[in-house]
Design a protein that fits this description.
Elements lengths: L1 H16 L6 H10 L14 H15 L3 H10 L11 H16 L7 H38 L3 H29 L2 H9 L1 H23 L6 H19 L5 H25 L2
Helix pairs in contact: 2-3, 3-5, 5-6, 5-7, 6-7, 6-9
C-alpha cells in the first residue's frame, strides 16, 4: 500500500515535468515578439535580450519544471546577433530543437554549437541578400517611380514589399518550427548568396535607368560611355589593387573638380 501511495504521488510530479506541445497561440506570441529583437540591443550580448524575450512563451510551455526552464532561458541569455529578417526562422528552429531536447532526443550542450553556427552564417547571407540587394532594389525602384511622376505606384510598391516581408517572416518561422535544422538544407539549395549577386547587377541597370530619368540636360552617348569606363576602372581599382573606396572616391571628386581647370590650361597651351 505504501509503495502504491508513493507511485501515485510521484505520477502527478512526472506529468507536470513532461514537455507539452505548443499551441498556435503560443507560436503566434513568439512570432510577434521577434519584431522586438533589437529593442534591448546592448554591446555585450547584442540582440540576446530580444531573442530571450521571443523564446520565453515557448520555453515556459516546453519546460514545466522550474529548474529546466531556468537552464533553457540561460541558453538564450548569451551572445546573439544576426540579420533581423532571419530571427523569426531562427526562433522557429530553436523552439523545434528545444522540444527535442526536452524529450531527450538531443543533448542540451548541442544547442550552443547549433546557435553559433546558424546565426553567423545567416547574418552574412542576410547582409548580402537583404541589406545589399533586396532593400536596395526596393529603394531604386521607388525613386524611379517618383522620378517618372508615379507617386501612387511608389506607395503601392512600398505597401506590397511591406506585406511581402511580413509573409516571409511568418512563413520562415513556421518552416523553422516544423522542419528544424532541415530547413537550412532547403535554403542552401536556393543559393541565396549568388541570388544576392544577381540582384546587385539588376540594381546597377536600374540605377542607369534612374540617371536617364533624372539627367538635367541632353544625353550624349560618349559621355555615358566615358562615365561607365570611369566607374568600371574604379571597381577594378577597389577589387584588384586593394585601394579603399574612400580613397578612390576622393580621387574621383578631385578629378571632377579639376577637370574644367585642366581644359582651360590645355586650351591656353594648345597650338
Amino acid at each position: 500500500m505504501a509503495r502504491e501511495a508513493r507511485v501515485s504521488a510521484a505520477a502527478p510530479a512526472e506529468a507536470a515535468a513532461r514537455p507539452r506541445s505548443l499551441a498556435w497561440r503560443t507560436l503566434a506570441s513568439c512570432l510577434v515578439r521577434t519584431y522586438l529583437v533589437g529593442a534591448a540591443f546592448n554591446t555585450r550580448g547584442m540582440q540576446n535580450v530580444g531573442l530571450a524575450y521571443a523564446m520565453d512563451p515557448g520555453l515556459v510551455i516546453i519546460y514545466p519544471s522550474p529548474e529546466r526552464l531556468a537552464e533553457a532561458r540561460a541558453r538564450y541569455a548569451r551572445h546573439y546577433n544576426t540579420h533581423p529578417f532571419w530571427t523569426p526562422m531562427l526562433v522557429g528552429i530553436f523552439l523545434s530543437m528545444e522540444r527535442k531536447i526536452a524529450r531527450g532526443l538531443f543533448p542540451a550542450q548541442m544547442m550552443d554549437g547549433v546557435k553559433g553556427t546558424t546565426i553567423y552564417t545567416l547574418s552574412a547571407i542576410g547582409d548580402s541578400l537583404f541589406g545589399g540587394s533586396v532593400m536596395v532594389l526596393w529603394s531604386i525602384c521607388t525613386i524611379i517611380l517618383l522620378a517618372a511622376g508615379w507617386p501612387g505606384a511608389a506607395v503601392a510598391l512600398g505597401a506590397l514589399c511591406f506585406l511581402g516581408l511580413q509573409s516571409f517572416k511568418a512563413a520562415t518561422f513556421l518552416l523553422g518550427f516544423r522542419e528544424g535544422l532541415n530547413v537550412l538544407r532547403r535554403f542552401r539549395r536556393w543559393d541565396l548568396i549568388n541570388w544576392g549577386q544577381r540582384l546587385k547587377m539588376v540594381n546597377g541597370a536600374l540605377l542607369v535607368l534612374f540617371w536617364t530619368l533624372a539627367w538635367p540636360g541632353p544625353i550624349l552617348w560618349w559621355q555615358w560611355v566615358a562615365a561607365g569606363g570611369v566607374l568600371g576602372a574604379t571597381a577594378w581599382a577597389v577589387n584588384v589593387l586593394g585601394l579603399t573606396r574612400e580613397l578612390v572616391g576622393v580621387m574621383l571628386l578631385a578629378g571632377y573638380l579639376a577637370w574644367p581647370i585642366l581644359v582651360k590650361l590645355f586650351a591656353m597651351f594648345a597650338p
